[in-house]
Each structure stands twice: as structure tokens, then as C-alpha cells.
């Protein structure tokens, strides 16, 4: 199925006349008839009733007309976005990022470049609060952050759920997931809240829901350093996004919680001026 075939079919359905449809499309009538007939063969449906005097839509044709119009509208919008980018109206897309998003960014940006060839991407990594403020002020076009977005002048578009994993002494490992209440006696080490507010808030909330206040441990300024310290020092536990680190079998173990914990991942945009390629960007990262 080709967009050309859908466009010819929609035009015939609107004109109910092959000759008038050909004039509107500025092509010869046999070409219109051939492409619509080919579309019917490929779909295995009869879309039009034809006679020497008139053309009418079948029931299948009426349903297909709605779907064809939606497909053509989406294709036209993608073409408009590409034209804007090529013309330089939005040739540079400034994106705020967070730690641990490399795989998601590579996959999404690869799809974005495929859809909009030639777009220039500029990435900026900073704490979530600074990212949101940069989007609000116009310094960034969009930002990927974890957790809720409540700042005036911006809004978050939920795109994914980021699972949380626990990193802790191996004697606490559980193949079916670690229960938080079993960690009540161990110090909890988290990054400073200004750097990872969503992670800190979600973990503390879950601990309180489990019926305890976690013992505060030293802040995690570097995950690699924290792993070394936890391997060779006093027992403690920490929380990471997904599989954000690798630990060999031994002193430490990383795995899921039971029940599972996660935080929402969102695309933050300015409420007054979103980028022209927003639809393409969202679809690339879903």
C-alpha cells in the first residue's frame, strides 16, 4: 500500500467521479483508476461501486475513507515538520538529559534522525530541577526527566516507567524480589535529593508505606565509589535506575523489589512554545 494510492482513493471518494478526481489530481484518468484498483486488490476489499453513470462508496469503502484520511493527515504533518527543519526554523533541537538514559536516548534519537534527516541535536546533562527551569526559560527546547513535573510554564508528557533496582549485600538477595521491610535495619544510601529527587522521594515514600523510616546512610556522590565502599565497608543498601550498574557475584547483589518500584519518565516541554517536531519526537521515544 502506498500513500499515493490512498490519496487517489480519497479524492475519488470525495468527488465520486474518476474524471473529476483526475482533474483535481492533475493526472490522467486511467492512472487514477489503475491505482485505486490496485489498492483494492492489495487490501482484498471492494471500496467502490462503479457504473457507467456513477461511483459510490461501499460499506468497506466508507470505513477505509476515514482511516485513509487519518494516515494522509499524519503523513502531511510529518512532511511539514521536515520542511520546517530543512528551512532552518527548528534545525537545532536542544535536549536536556539525565544520567542513565543513554540506551533510551540512542534508540529514540536514531529514530528521530531517520524521520527527520539532517536535524542537529545538542544534549545538555544537568540536575532535573535545572533542566525543567531551562525548558521554562527557553534555554532548552525539551528535557527528559524522571518523576512528576509541577513547575508553572512547563508540562510533562509521560513516555515510560523507569524500574528501580536495589543494590545490597548478597545475603539479602531474593530471586523473586527484595521486600523493603527486610531492609529496615540497614542504612540507606541515596544520591543528594537535588540530583535525583524522583528516586529519593519514591524510595522514602515506599519505605514509609512499608511501615518504617529508613536509617540514613552517607550520600552517594559517585555510584562507582559507593559500590567499592559497600563491598569493603559497613553493610548498606542503595537504589539505582533499571540496571544502571554491573556488579560481579560476590559481596553485593542487584535485583528487583517486591512489589516492584518505578518512577515515571517524562518529556518536558514549554507550555507556550513547544518544538515543531514534538509529535515526531514523542513517537520516536514511545
From TrEMBL:
PROSITE patterns noted in UniProt: HTH_LYSR
UniProt entry keywords in alphabetical sequence: DNA-binding, Transcription, Transcription regulation
Pfam families: HTH_1, LysR_substrate
Coiled-coil blocks: none
GO cellular component: protein-DNA complex
Superkingdom in the source lineage: Bacteria
GO molecular function, one term: DNA-binding transcription factor activity
HTH lysR-type domain boundaries: 1-58
CDD domains given in the database record: PBP2_LTTR_aromatics_like
Record's keyword annotation contains DNA-binding: yes
Keyword Transcription regulation assigned: yes
Family under the similarity heading: Belongs to the LysR transcriptional regulatory family.
Name of the protein described by the UniProt record: DNA-binding transcriptional LysR family regulator
Biological source species: Kribbella caucasensis
Amino acid at each position: 500500500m502506498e500513500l499515493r494510492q490512498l490519496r487517489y482513493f480519497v479524492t475519488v471518494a470525495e468527488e465520486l467521479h474518476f474524471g473529476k478526481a483526475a482533474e483535481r489530481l492533475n493526472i490522467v484518468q486511467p492512472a487514477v483508476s489503475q491505482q485505486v484498483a490496485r489498492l483494492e486488490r492489495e487490501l482484498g476489499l471492494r471500496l467502490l461501486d462503479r457504473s457507467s453513470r456513477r461511483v459510490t462508496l461501499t460499506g468497506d469503502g466508507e470505513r477505509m475513507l476515514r482511516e485513509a484520511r487519518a494516515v494522509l493527515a499524519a503523513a502531511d504533518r510529518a512532511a511539514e515538520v521536515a520542511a520546517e527543519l530543512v528551512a532552518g526554523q527548528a534545525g537545532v533541537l536542544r535536549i536536556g538529559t539525565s544520567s542513565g538514559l543513554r540506551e533510551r536516548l540512542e534508540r529514540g534519537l536514531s529514530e528521530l534522525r531517520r524521520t527527520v534527516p539532517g536535524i542537529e541535536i545538542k544534549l545538555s546533562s544537568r540536575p532535573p530541577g535545572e533542566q525543567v527551569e531551562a525548558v521554562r526559560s527557553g534555554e532548552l527546547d525539551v528535557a527528559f526527566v524522571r518523576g512528576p513535573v509541577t513547575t508553572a510554564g512547563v508540562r510533562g508528557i509521560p513516555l515510560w516507567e523507569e524500574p528501580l533496582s536495589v543494590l545490597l549485600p548478597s545475603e539479602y538477595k531474593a530471586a523473586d524480589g527484595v521486600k523493603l521491610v527486610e531492609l529496615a535495619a540497614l542504612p540507606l544510601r541515596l544520591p543528594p535529593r537535588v540530583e535525583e529527587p524522583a528516586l529519593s522521594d519514591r524510595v522514602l515514600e515506599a519505605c514509609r508505606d512499608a511501615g518504617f523510616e529508613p536509617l540514613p546512610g552517607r550520600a552517594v556522590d559517585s555510584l562507582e565509589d559507593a559500590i567499592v565502599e559497600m563491598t569493603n565497608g559497613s553493610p548498606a543498601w542503595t537504589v539505582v535506575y533499571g540496571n544502571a550498574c554491573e556488579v560481579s557475584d560476590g559481596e553485593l547483589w542487584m535485583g528487583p523489589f517486591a512489589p516492584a518500584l518505578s518512577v515515571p519518565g517524562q518529556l518536558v516541554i514549554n507550555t507556550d512554545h513547544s518544538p515543531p517536531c514534538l509529535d515526531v519526537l514523542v513517537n520516536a521515544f514511545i
